[in-house]
Every structure is written in structure tokens, then in C-alpha cells.
């Protein structure tokens, strides 16, 4: 099946610094990618929809200046957490939509962010 | 906004038991996916259903899409400890701006 790779798998950063997480679709082109945040034992919370070549669409309550999303190519989207704070510590997951039959969404492995 | 109600939210059973997870909505979906997620990992796609009334089997897992494409179920026969995980359903409507809606998830624990 289709593969989505997310990097890094885990990262620890200091408060006030910025962290970039990459999401790549390895064997298909994805005009649309999604970024989620997940808390323990809870479902996925959609943060934003990333569209190749255009600005991301953010969900209500998500600060676009804090969570910068760039979708520069059909296989790569990045999420940058700017001026990170401990409350930004979370599991971040990306997914990519394989266009066509069923509009199936494939997920990356997730990235653990810990802000100290 | 499309909503997906997933139930039950938590399920703790013994090995060998059967279980069913439900995913319901008042909206019609063009397709629906089921995922299983283990702690610290991304969700893994189990199945995609697109046709009303469709039934798909994956070993001991049986997935059904409602005739009206508003609901779906996942039935696990003779559950095993390896089935433990968070099960998520996700649906969306056809069109250019396909944004999947996720259910709250069902956290399943299968005790040996």
C-alpha cells in the first residue's frame, strides 16, 4: 500500500525554539495533506489541511502563525511549531490523500514533540 | 460539519470473545475507512468501503457499510491480544475538498 513517511519520529526542544516536522508521500503524489494532533487515548484532532502550492486551511482555534505549514511539492508538507511551549508537547501526525478511488488517507508514523 | 459517532468508546474483553464497533452519522459518506492505531504510532489503514451495503472481510475482521452509506460497523471474531489498539473510523464526501471526518475512536483491550 501507499506509504507516508514522517520525520523526525521524536524530538525534544527547548521552550522558545522552533521545530520542523516533515511529511512525505513516498510512492504517490498528494495534492492534499493533513496535520493532526493527538492526545493520549483520544482521536485525531485536525489542525489544518495542507494544499500543494497554496496556503493551508486551518481549523478553528489553531494559530496559523504558531503552526506554520508549507506544502511546497506534491510529496512534501512541513509543519513548523514556532516559539514552542511545553503545552505544545504532543503527538503530531500527518496524512496524505491518495486521489482517486475511495479518496483513501494514509498516515505517517507520527512525531512525538516534547518541549522542555 | 459532518459528525461521526463511534461507539463504544472503550472496550475491555477476554481473548476469544467477539465484539462489534459502530460508526454512525446523519450524513452520507462517499467512502469510509477503518484504521487501527497502536500507542505511539500512526493509524494503519484496515479497509476502505465505498458501496452501500458492502461487506469486506480481513481475516477475523468483518467490515460493513450501511445501505445508505451513513453508518458502518467493524466486527471482530475471536479477539486476540494482538487486536488491542485504538480503532478509528473516518468518512468523507466526494468532491475536490475531501476532508475526512474522524470518529472519537474505540480503545480496545483484549486480555489474554
Give your account of this protein's structure.
The complex is a heterodimer of chains A (116) and B (112). Chain A is mostly beta strands. Chain A is 0% helix and 53% strand. Chain A has strands at 4-7, 10-13, 19-25, 32-38, 44-51, 57-58, 67-73, 76-81, 90-97, 105-107, 111-115. In chain A, the strands form 2 sheets. In chain A, strands 2, 4, 5, 6, 9, 10 and 11 form a 7-stranded mixed β-sheet that branches. In chain A, strands 1-3-8-7 form a 4-stranded antiparallel β-sheet, with no helix packed on it. Chain A is globular. The model of chain A has no long low-confidence stretch (mean pLDDT 90). Chain B is mainly beta and 112 residues long. Chain B has strands at 5-7, 10-14, 19-24, 31-37, 44-49, 55-58, 61-65, 71-76, 85-92, 101-102, 106-111. The termini of chain B are far apart. The chains are: A mainly beta (116), B mainly beta (112). At the A-B interface, strand 5, strand 9 and strand 10 of A face strand 4, strand 5 and strand 9 of B.
